[in-house]
Amino acid sequence: MPRSVNHVASRARRKRLLKLTRGYFGSRKNVWTVAKNTWEKGQQYAYRDRRQKKRNFRSLWIQRINAAARLEGLSYSQLIGLMKKSNIEINRKALADLATNHPTAFRAVVEKVK
User: Fold this and answer.
1) How far apart are CA 74 and CA 77, in angstroms?
2) Residue 55 and residue 29: Cα distance in Å, rounded?
3) How far is the C-alpha of 65 from the C-alpha of 99, rounded, in Å?
4) Which residue, 21, 34, 46, 51, shows the most beta carbons closer than 10 Å to its own?
5) All domains of the chain, ordered by start, with CATH?
6) How far apart are CA 19 and CA 14, in angstroms?
7) Residue 14's closest CA among 6, 3, 2?
8) Are 107 and 72 in contact (CB under 8 A)?
9) Residues 68, 103: contact at Cβ < 8 Å?
């Protein structure tokens, strides 16, 4: 008796993955094993970088706050320390937004903590 294989399902599975790798360079888009490895690695990077994105943004906010605070004669750590002492609770995202888009409001916050 001949061996029975479900070629329809296996081809559909391959086509689905090759469709996901459309736009990749060279054989990464059309050679099954290379495309499969590339796509799996991409999924790993996506998982990792969803977490790294949060770290990167926090780091960016801190840099922006530090730059604006130094224009006011304070360092970042001094500013955050003074804010903790005076019970002003503004998160770093909002504080960085004030520093870049609303410098007068940021200056008011700095004057309040001084």
Assistant:
1) 8
2) 32
3) 6
4) 21
5) 8-113 (1.10.1900.20)
6) 9
7) 6
8) yes
9) yes
Pick the residue with more confidence: 1 or 32? 32
- The residue whose two tokens read 């970042």 is 76
CA–CA separation, 101 and 58 (whole Å): 17
Q: Are 90 and 56 in contact (CB under 8 A)?
A: no
| Distance of alpha carbon 63 from alpha carbon 39, whole angstroms | 34
φ/ψ (deg, to 5) at 73:
90, 15
90 CB neighbour count, 10 Å cutoff: 14
What is the structure's pLDDT at 4?
85
User: Tens digit of pLDDT for each residue in 17-36?
Assistant: 999 999 999 999 999 999 99
Global pTM value: 0.80
Kindly provide the residue ranges of all beta strands, DSSP E only, lying in the chain, ordered along the sequence.
Answer: none
Extract the tokens encoding 101.
């888009």
CB atoms within 10 A of CB 52: 10
Rounded CA separation 17/103 (Å): 49
Picking from 113, 90, 96, the residue whose alpha carbon sits closest to that of residue 60 is: 96
